[in-house]
Amino acid sequence: MTETAVLLGPRTSPLVGVVCDPPGGAGATHDVACLFLNAGFTHRVGPQRLHVRVARRLAAMGVPSLRFDYSGVGDSGTRSDATSMEDSTIEEAQEAMRFMTATRGVQRFVLIGVCWGADNALRVCGADPRVAAVAAIDFYSVYSFRYFVRTHKSRLLDPRSLGSLFLGRSAAPARLVAGLIEIAKSRRAKRRAPTAQPQAADAEDGMLPVRSPDSIVKGLRGLVDRGAQILMVYARGAPSFDQYQMHFRRPMAELERSGRFRVEVFAHADHVFTRLRNQAWLIELLLQWVSDMAVGAGTDEHVALEARVS
Amino acid sequence: MNPFFFGTSQRQLFGIHHPPEGVELRDGAVLISPPLGHEYIAAHRPLQQLAVRLARQGLHVLRFDFFGCGDSAGDLEEATVAQWRDDVQTALQELRDMSGSRRLSIVGLRLGATVAAASAAAATGSDLRSLVLWEPVVNGADYVTEMFGEQRDWERRTFPKPRPETLHWPVPEVLGFPITEDLQRDLGALDLLNLPGRLADRALVVQNEEESDYASLRTSLTSQAGEVELSMVEHEACWRGHRGGTIALVPVPVNQAISDWIAEGYR
């Protein structure tokens, strides 16, 4: 395994990344590579360094990967143009794919993302046919009242937070107003759902695009119909699990019948799989799933990969 | 900005060099020494922004990841404090080679400050121009206790009714990072109040809240640096993203204060 630091995109405002190559180095060509997308503002190493550890295990299996920072995140500079984040996240992922094609001959990509990264991975998949598969880990994009309560419950019950609130040093009132605005936007999006375009954001505020559940399901169905493999991973201890139960459980069960859509729920995990036990399970799941994507289940090469994973 | 790996092939460290910008180039270079684990993740962008600010002061800046952390080689389970002290010296040598300057400074945050100071103290005849200890870990044993306390708080908040079988894992953990018993012992032996040797020409301790340890630290540093300053700068503790703070929030006032103080040392 070798790792190389790289700069991608325009020289004036490049994106910073690290390519992790299998033994044999950068000279070899590969059919498939993985891209790791930023989990919110967490830089390319991923939550608890998840991306680094998965990348190194993938390289040991023979699969190269690139982890990079979107503009304005981690080590990458900010963009000076007026491109929206909705568009730049797709453009920059495509820039990363171009880089891997030019330097490693890669033609197909597996995108892995947690949280915001999951949302971006699915949107990039919708925009670019080179994306063969997406692992969307704790994806959320629907802002509902129940979600809001779940997100803020621990803070509302924390004596320190309450103390700050009474002393006027808390940002909670501003967050409350922002949250209520999001809920209103989400409800408006839901009303407009019948006319919504698949994978198009109905409303957006900062990093969290708000879409109606129907438009999300429609978008996912579109990806499966065009042959993409989708792995949705949910953590039962995270607010997004409520969204899954409320909006997605049934339609996703239907999508699973296609054989190209898979849902995994981790019972005792939080949003970013903080516990080491959960990280270990998540890593094994991803490696197993990518090995299926990389060479196709049942082939001799797949059997060899499976042996290396285990 | 130039990302690269340096060090030996068995022990590659990831670094980012920020070359000097602006009209007034100074003969000087600054190493930024990051914190550990969850604090490292939360403080990454603030330290990146600090590097940009220092480079605009006309200085070479190198940020790096310790072994077993970030993009550097290895796993945290294999790391030791002694190796991290060596990493600081390896990074300083890299910075000397890149910048061509012998007038080096270090800015360290939390454990990064402590390890950098311990490394400087252990190096014969430390020739550091300036050393910034930003909310440093003063006593390693207290730090270990504090970290595991945070882990317990987090578990209580996140899983109020945990199932016993979910609580056991072979390696002790703090907010998603393995902190082995060996590493705990290593960390527990760190004591900023009892470092031998000279540290730097000048030292600055940056603190956010009144804390008696930092007054004692200032006193103890007076024998190890020509000039010692204790500065109170109110700011969001950017490395505490897990406590409900905002990850990657850049504490502009403290970045400004540190970069001005460092630049002052090169006038």
Question: Main traits of this protein?
Answer:
heterodimer; A: 310 residues; alpha/beta; two-stranded antiparallel sheet; 10 strands; 18% strand; B: 267 residues; eight-stranded mixed sheet; two-stranded antiparallel ribbon; 7 helices; globular
Overall description:
- The complex is a heterodimer of chains A (310) and B (267).
- With 310 residues, chain A is α/β, with parallel strands linked by helices.
- In chain A, 47% of the residues lie in helices and 18% in strands.
- Chain B is α/β, with parallel strands linked by helices and 267 residues long.
- Chain B has helices at residues 37-56, 81-99, 111-122, 140-158, 181-188, 212-221, 252-264; strands at 2-6, 13-18, 29-33, 60-64, 104-109, 128-134, 173-174, 177-178, 200-207, 225-232.
- Chain B has an 8-stranded mixed sheet with strand order 1-2-4-3-5-6-9-10, sandwiched between helices.
- The longest helix of chain B has 20 residues, at 37-56.
- Chain B is globular.
- The model of chain B has no long low-confidence stretch (mean pLDDT 91).
- Chain A binds chain B through residues 3-7, 14, 16, 18, 40-45, 47-49, 52-53, 73-75, 77, 154-155, 158, 161, 237, 268, 270, 272-277, 279, and chain B through 1-5, 12, 14, 16, 38, 41, 44-45, 48, 69-71, 73, 75-76, 154, 157-159, 162-163, 166, 169, 171, 173, 175-178, 244, 247-248.
Can you give me a brief rundown of this structure?
Chain A is built from ten helices and ten strands. Chain A is α/β, with parallel strands linked by helices and 310 residues long.
